[in-house]
Design goal:
Strand content: 5-15%
Keywords: Heme, Iron, Membrane, Metal-binding, Monooxygenase, Oxidoreductase, Transmembrane, Transmembrane helix
CATH architecture of one domain: 2-Layer Sandwich
GO molecular function, one term: monooxygenase activity
Cofactor: heme
CATH class of one domain: Alpha Beta
Family: Belongs to the cytochrome P450 family.
Number of helices: 20
Number of strands: 12
Protein name: Cytochrome P450
Length: 500
């Protein structure tokens, strides 16, 4: 009788796995970059040598090539091929790729997470009720940004060092956004604001779990990370309960006001009011209020987390460049005197140096790749002649576009804070060289709010504080595979002594 040792079984399993999982590339497909490690393919370089690896692949194989990572062939796109993804949104599915990383369909159980119809609704909400009401919301934003700064930073007559600056900025940014989402009455409750503030951070660990099990099957990783949710574990649940408890009395109060005042009822200027005006809104029906609270959570996730990330990156970029901070202070002081401290949207638009600085900070966000899509048509042929099959995962080579020498010169890797001042190129404008907010008709509709809130935060901050890095150097972001998170190094805050 033949007996097999555990090692022999393992070897046989690995051979079978290699045969099954060996990538097969069609003749018309983008070239597959050769690799020397069976099964693992390019995974090591993808995780630990990312920037150099992608740069060398681009130089050798051009702007359209494939790699084998975590048991899956992925096609990396840059140049014209990247732009073609934005121009053909019906062929490339962003939602399924995003849900693969963060399974919102299992977390936001009352609205089904993000599907095509819900994404259209959220985009319309952001476009019309957030970015579209900037002129109305700007007063709320500056009022609560100042309150947030007082709470999270406070008096810095003696220098104050803060290490987890992202957490601090996230707290500051959460306050005005909470007021825009549910109104001042509901947002006066600290636990509600805290839930909005912590939601993205509580879901963050799911984003960084490496899909090791995808070497066996691409769906196995998603199955395992969602398994606890099938047995009742859901980090969203407690936040949903808090928000429901706080908004329900506000909803009932507004409904009473509608009955009393009729046509003379004055609508509130927040997202909650917008949801209350939807045909399907009836908070007395089972699951209806949880459904709309989950809609609020989608807005929370895409607004607070992204805006606070942009703001904290800009803060670190300022802290390491005192000469830039001084120049921006002069602009801020001029505008502050003109508007007597009460900033309007027109005043924010006058901050041309600050706008250029914010755009440059976003250009240096640092993600090597971003915005994965799945090919959902039968196949797609790019203008360069390469064809990708249905089901292929494509990822956009962000770093290549944002650091292109063709558009940004030979010093494209350098941080040039004021290069956009006279270029008619605001931080909200998307084009083929500036894809931080995506592109085409699906470009982020909330970018106008995000950029202007970031600018207003920095404007108020620069007038109030000086900031420097504890190390005295420009701090680099932390790289996790092809993605970045803000530095954890200390920032030193001091009160600004105004010019007399």
């Amino acid at each position: 009788m033949i007996e097999f040792s555990a090692f022999q079984i393992f070897v046989i399993f690995m051979i079978i796995l290699y045969i099954i999982r060996r990538p097969r590339i069609g003749k018309s497909e983008p070239p597959l970059v050769p690799y020397s490690i069976p099964i693992l393919g390019h995974t090591y370089n993808y995780l630990f040598n990312t920037k150099k690896f992608f740069k060398e692949c681009k130089e050798q194989y051009g702007g359209c090539f494939s790699i084998y990572v975590f048991g899956q062939v992925m096609t990396i796109l840059s140049g014209d091929s990247l732009i073609e993804v934005f121009r053909n949104p019906d062929d490339f599915d962003l939602i399924s790729a995003a849900n693969e990383v963060l399974p919102l369909q299992h977390l936001l159980v009352y609205n089904g997470g993000t599907n095509r119809e819900s994404v259209k609704f959220h985009a319309k909400t952001a476009r019309e009720q957030v970015s579209g009401k900037l002129d109305l919301n700007i007063g709320i934003v500056q009022k609560y940004l100042l309150k947030g700064m007082e709470k999270w930073i406070g008096d810095c007559n003696d220098p104050k060092t803060i290490y987890n600056a992202w957490n601090m900025v996230n707290g500051i940014i959460s306050l005005p956004i909470a007021n825009i989402l549910v109104g001042e009455e509901a947002a006066s409750h600290e636990d509600l604001v805290k839930s909005f503030e912590n939601l993205a951070f509580d879901l963050g660990p799911l984003l960084i779990i490496p899909p090791i099990l995808s070497f066996i099957h691409p769906k196995l990783h998603e199955f395992v990370i969602t398994l606890p949710m099938k047995f009742g574990w859901n980090p969203v649940s407690r936040h949903r309960e808090v928000v429901m408890n706080r908004v329900k009395p506000v909803i009932e109060k507004r409904l009473k006001e509608k009955n009393v005042f009729g046509d003379n009822y004055k609508p509130y200027n927040d997202i909650l009011e917008y949801y209350m005006n939807q045909p399907d809104f009836d908070h007395t029906k089972p699951n209806n209020l949880p459904y709309h609270v989950d809609n609020l959570f989608v807005m929370t996730f895409v607004s607070i987390n992204t805006t606070s990330r942009a703001a904290v990156d800009a803060l670190y970029d300022l802290a390491g460049r005192p000469e830039v901070l001084n120049e921006l202070y002069e602009e801020a002081l001029t505008i502050d005197k003109e508007c007597n401290g009460l900033v309007t949207l027109t005043d924010v638009q006058k901050m041309v140096k600050l706008d250029s600085f914010v755009k440059e900070s976003l250009r240096h966000a640092g993600n090597i790749i971003n915005l994965a899509h799945y090919m959902i048509s039968k196949s797609f042929t790019f203008s360069n002649g390469f064809t990708i099959p249905k089901g292929r995962k494509t990822i956009l080579y962000f770093d290549d576009a944002l650091k292109s020498k063709e558009y940004y010169g030979n010093d494209a890797e350098e941080f040039k804070p004021f290069q956009f001042v006279n270029a008619n190129s605001p931080a909200t404008k998307v084009d083929r060289s500036y894809i931080i907010f995506g592109g085409g008709k699906h470009a982020c509709p909330g970018r106008f709010f995000a950029v202007n809130e970031t600018k207003l935060f920095l404007h108020k901050f620069i007038l109030k504080y000086k900031v420097s890095t504890k190390s005295g150097k420009i701090e680099e972001k932390l790289l996790i595979g092809p993605y970045t998170i803000p530095s954890r190094s200390g920032l030193v805050f001091e009160n600004k002594v105004k010019n007399k």
